[in-house]
Structures are given as structure tokens and as C-alpha cells.
Write a structure and sequence with these properties.
- The chain is of the alpha/beta class and about 260 residues long.
- The chain has a single domain, classed as 3-Layer(aba) Sandwich (Protocatechuate 4,5-dioxygenase, Chain B).
- It is about 35% helix and about 20% strand.
- The protein contains eight helices and eight strands.
- It has a six-stranded mixed beta sheet, with helices on both faces. A two-stranded parallel sheet has the order 3-4.
- It is globular, with a radius of gyration of 17 Å.
- The mean pLDDT is about 95.
């Protein structure tokens, strides 16, 4: 497996609608593939799918799930006719079973916006097969780090992409309360230091205990948008480098590559 990458995916379909608050993210995602070897397939861990197992999409031609509301009509007409990869789905399931992780395959799950929004910007030709793996609904950090460690067994030509947000408090994105800005900065600095300056073992231990980090609960009332980062950290083989450090919706957001 190639170096895992964690990215912010922005607000719903807005990056595909050229929302001005997403211009730095749009540019980053469009340019990111120029820094990578073209992968043979992409495995995506999105913040927007939770199951009682680590579920894996195995449909050969997955449809899209418009899992947002209140956006313009064209938001529900977005297409991304990418193929799935049933053989890869089977390989992932085997790796997870070998690691004693709960897992299953599904042909009914569609690709959510945490998958198709960034990929449409990164690889608009939709010519790379995609498999999505769910979060586990326990939201246990250690379990998701173990998922990443199991995915190390993937072929080197495969890209593992964690799609979430290093800051995700929906009620606070547009709040004028200065506490939320201060919380964002404090947690952002902690997360960047942990992932880019600590040893692998120290990083993983800090991520397992992320709830005691500065302002962690204000930045993530619920951890589903942070867990894709933990999967990538588990799959990585060393210290991460910061590849995106920009403002989205007025909040500092981080992108990392291991």
C-alpha cells in the first residue's frame, strides 16, 4: 500500500459547487494527484458510514449516496461513474479477519459524499476502482488504529484515503463565540504536533487518548470525522507530513500523509 493520506472533504457537495469558502481545499485536492503515482485502486474510509462491523463495498459498479440535504438541485445530479473492485473487497475482508477484526461485505451500500466529492476533484475521469470501508459504530480509537494496521497488507499500488475533518463541530463552524476559534487553534496545534513530530509509538498512544487533548471535545463532540485519520495513522509506517493546513468555513483544517 502506498503512503496513506488523510484529507478534509469539506461541507457536503460545496467543493463541487465552487463554494468560495472551499477554494483552498479545491485547489489542494485537484493538485494532490500530481504528487502521487497513479494508484491501481483506492480504498476510502469516510466519516459518513458506520456499521456494527468494518463493512466493505463489493458492488462492481457502485451508485452514489447523496447523504446531504438543503443544497441546490444540481447537488443531487452529480455523477461519478467509478467502478468497484470485488476482488479487492475480498482481499480486504481476509486481511481484517486475519487481524481478528469484525468485518463483512455489502453490495447494497452506495458511495457517500465523503468518497465521491474529493475523488471527483482528485480523479475526475473516474478511471480508478474504488472500495469504501466503513467505520465501526463503537467509534473506538484503538479499533480503528488496528484497522489501519491490518490494511498495511494491501498491495503497494493501492491508495488508502481517510476522508474526514480535523475539526468537526457543526454548531460552532459559524459561531461568533471566540471560545470556538481558540479551541480550534489549540486542538489543531496538538494534532499537527502529535502526527508530524512524535515517534510512531508516541503518536498512536496520543491518538488513542485524543479525548484528553486540549479542547478535544469542543472540536469533536463526536469522533467520526477524526477516526479516518486514525486509520491512516495505523496504516502509516512512520511520522506524517502536513500536506494541507488551511482554513475551511473559518476553521483551521489539516491534511496529512504518512
Amino acid at each position: 500500500m502506498t503512503s496513506p493520506i488523510f484529507i478534509p472533504h469539506g461541507g457536503g457537495p460545496l467543493p463541487l459547487l465552487n463554494d468560495p469558502r472551499h477554494q483552498t481545499l479545491i485547489s489542494f485536492l485537484q493538485q494532490l494527484p500530481t504528487t502521487l503515482e497513479k494508484p491501481s485502486a483506492i480504498v476510502v474510509i469516510s466519516a459518513h458510514w458506520e456499521e456494527s462491523t468494518f463493512a466493505i463495498t463489493s458492488h462492481p459498479n457502485p451508485a452514489l449516496l447523496y447523504d446531504y440535504s438543503g443544497f441546490p438541485k444540481e447537488s443531487y445530479e452529480i455523477t461519478y461513474p467509478v467502478s468497484g473492485h470485488p476482488v479487492l473487497a475480498q482481499q480486504i475482508e481476509q486481511l481484517l479477519r486475519q487481524a481478528n477484526l469484525p468485518t463483512s461485505q455489502t453490495t447494497s451500500r452506495k458511495l457517500d459524499h465523503g468518497v465521491f466529492v474529493p475523488l471527483k476533484l482528485m480523479y475526475p475521469s473516474a478511471d480508478i476502482p474504488v472500495v469504501q470501508v466503513s467505520l465501526h459504530r463503537s467509534l473506538d480509537p484503538s479499533l480503528h488504529i488496528r484497522l489501519g494496521e491490518a490494511l498495511k497488507g494491501l498491495d503497494d499500488s493501492i491508495l488508502l484515503l481517510g476522508s474526514g475533518f480535523s475539526y468537526h463541530n457543526l454548531r460552532a463552524f459559524f459561531s461568533p463565540d471566540p471560545r470556538h476559534r481558540e479551541a480550534n487553534v489549540a486542538f489543531h496545534q496538538w494534532l499537527r504536533q502529535v502526527c508530524t513530530q512524535m515517534s510512531r509509538s508516541e503518536m498512536l498512544e496520543h491518538l488513542r487518548q485524543w479525548t484528553i487533548a486540549p479542547s478535544s471535545q469542543l472540536c469533536h463532540p463526536r469522533s467520526e470525522h477524526l477516526l479516518p485519520l486514525m486509520v491512516c495513522a495505523g496504516a502509516g509506517r512512520g511520522v506524517a507530513k502536513s500536506i494541507f493546513d488551511g482554513v475551511i468555513f473559518g476553521k483551521q483544517s489539516l491534511g496529512l500523509q504518512w
